[in-house]
Design brief:
The chain is α/β, with parallel strands linked by helices. It has helices at 10-22, 44-49, 54-57, 64-68, 129-140, 154-165, 186-198, 308-322, 401-406, 413-423, 433-440, 444-448, and strands at residues 2-6, 27-31, 71-74, 79-83, 88-91, 96-98, 101-104, 108-110, 123-125, 146-150, 169-173, 202-204, 207-215, 218-226, 233-236, 239-242, 246-248, 260-262, 269-274, 286-288, 293-296, 302-303, 336-338, 344-349, 356-362, 365-372, 375-383. It has 3 domains: 2-110 and 247-322, FAD/NAD(P)-binding domain, CATH 3.50.50; 123-244, FAD/NAD(P)-binding domain; 350-452, no CATH class. Helix 1 packs parallel to helix 8 (308-322). It is globular.
């Protein structure tokens, strides 16, 4: 049997590991449009700063990973289509690769809004390793002194803090009325934003970018307007980062009968390739995992969740099933956090359909829990700054500016993960007053599993 995997991110790597636990002999071919081994996609701001080792960035062990798992990895092979009737994938340039089972794990691409001037030098996205290396090169060259980031989602705010710590003047432009608009409500967002403003980051909320201006091919200024007005103002910028969201690479299945995630009421595509409990598409020999697909979440809803944890989880499930097992997806997780150092924030679950919520403060953290039918359906948290002593065993902390840089490190993703796995156990339990009281006392982790009765943060 030949398995062809389109893409080389976390979903692909997890699928390879799972498949090889069951099937040691079948051929695995990986087609990737990049030239790198699997890397951690949530560490691009670390690449910009230059504070991550190759061992941490290429977290599966670099190219040795493919040798250990007997994988034929083919670099710089951009897959442009799949012909599921002929069971082949088509590479840019015309090459065709046949498969018996195929995993679509090509991820998502950065959405570039149709703003005049996006073609100027100094304008970039910040999603992949090429982007991060490009940004770092521009900054350390001394050419960039001020930056405008378009979009205040997780990548936008992480890059904003990174560039501010590297000495740049930083402006963030956000169309909505708050930072992290898909993660936090306005009340929580305002508490997250304040420490970042105190660091010197300038936020322009309820604004849109109408044009990017430059001379001699390089960006020089960004023209923005408050929503609903025609009054322009200009921000000087040597670099512009477009952090305006991502879209699944569904173009790969454009000419097939493979189903997409479509809103039945409007007929609009609202997600990626649709998969079932076993990560199968509507073609049983074609699987999908990661940012390219819409899978079933922990509440049984089809959702497009473009995050690292569900990519790993979905990839592993697909890998086991392509190898002949019958492993059912228990529900994709969707917890997220921002890795900013001055302030912590995270969220998980669903907020928009909630019926009520309650908030509480605990050890300098503000936690908000959302309920539906009396059960937990989501949560948000924000933690104010706290000083930490640098870990002297970290080889990047060796004096000079690094000590100040790391002295107020936040812990976002770990806390969000703990919170999610605590709350997810409550999703089918009605929260009685006694349980809410225990949560407000900071016993979240203990309620999840007694052996973890230690502070979250």
């Amino acid at each position: 049997m030949r398995v062809v995997i389109v893409g080389n991110g976390p979903a692909a790597a997890s699928a390879i590991e799972a498949f090889r636990k069951v099937d040691k002999e079948s051929d695995i071919v990986v087609l990737t449009d990049e030239e790198f081994p699997t890397y951690a996609p949530n560490c691009m701001e670390n690449v910009i700063r230059g504070d991550i080792s190759d061992e941490a960035l290429f977290y599966k062990g670099g190219f040795d990973f493919y040798e250990r798992h007997n994988v034929d990895i083919r670099l710089k092979r951009e897959v442009v289509a799949i012909d599921n009737k002929r069971k082949t994938v088509v590479v840019k340039g015309g090459e065709e690769v046949a498969y018996d089972k195929c995993l679509l794990a090509a991820g998502a691409y950065s959405f570039i809004p149709p703003i005049p001037g996006v073609e100027l030098i100094g304008v970039t996205t910040a999603k992949n390793l090429y982007d991060a290396k490009r940004i770092r090169d521009w900054v350390i060259s001394g050419r960039v002194r001020s930056a405008v980031i378009v979009g205040a989602g997780p990548i936008g705010v992480e890059d904003a803090e990174t560039l501010r710590h590297m000495g740049l003047e930083v402006h963030v432009v956000e169309f909505f009325d708050r930072v992290l608009p898909r993660m936090l409500d306005k009340f929580m967002s305002e508490r997250y934003q304040k420490p970042l403003e105190e660091e010197g980051i300038n936020f322009h909320l309820n604004h849109q970018v109408v044009a990017i201006h430059g001379e001699d091919g390089w960006v020089e200024a960004v023209e923005i307007r408050p929503n609903g007005t025609d009054r322009s103002k200009f921000i000087r910028a040597d670099m512009v980062i477009l952090s305006t969201g991502v879209r699944p690479r569904i173009n790969i299945v454009a000419d097939t009968d493979i189903r997409l995630h479509i809103d039945e009421a409007t007929g609009r595509v609202v997600g990626g390739v649709l998969v079932n409990d076993y990560m199968q598409t509507s073609d049983p020999d074609v699987y999908a995992a990661g940012d390219i697909c819409s899978g079933l979440d922990a509440w049984g809803n089809h959702r497009w969740i473009a995050l690292f944890p569900p990519a790993q989880q979905g990839g592993a499930i697909a890998g086991f099933n392509m190898a002949g097992l019958k492993v059912k997806n228990p529900g994709l997780v969707d917890y997220n956090a921002v890795k900013t150092r001055s302030v912590v924030a995270g969220s998980g679950g669903i907020f928009e359909g909630s019926e009520e919520s309650f908030s509480f403060e605990w050890e300098n953290k503000l936690v908000k829990v959302f309920l539906k039918d009396g059960c937990v359906c989501g949560y948000q948290f924000v933690g104010l700054p706290r000083k930490y002593t640098p870990n002297v065993r970290n080889r990047f902390i060796s004096g000079s500016w690094q000590e100040g840089f790391f002295e107020d490190k936040g812990i976002g993703l770990e806390a969000s993960g703990v919170l999610f796995h605590s709350f997810i156990r409550f999703r089918d339990r009605v929260l009685k007053d006694s349980l809410i009281k225990a949560i407000k006392s900071g016993m979240l982790r203990a309620l999840s599993n007694p052996k973890f009765e230690v502070p979250i943060f």
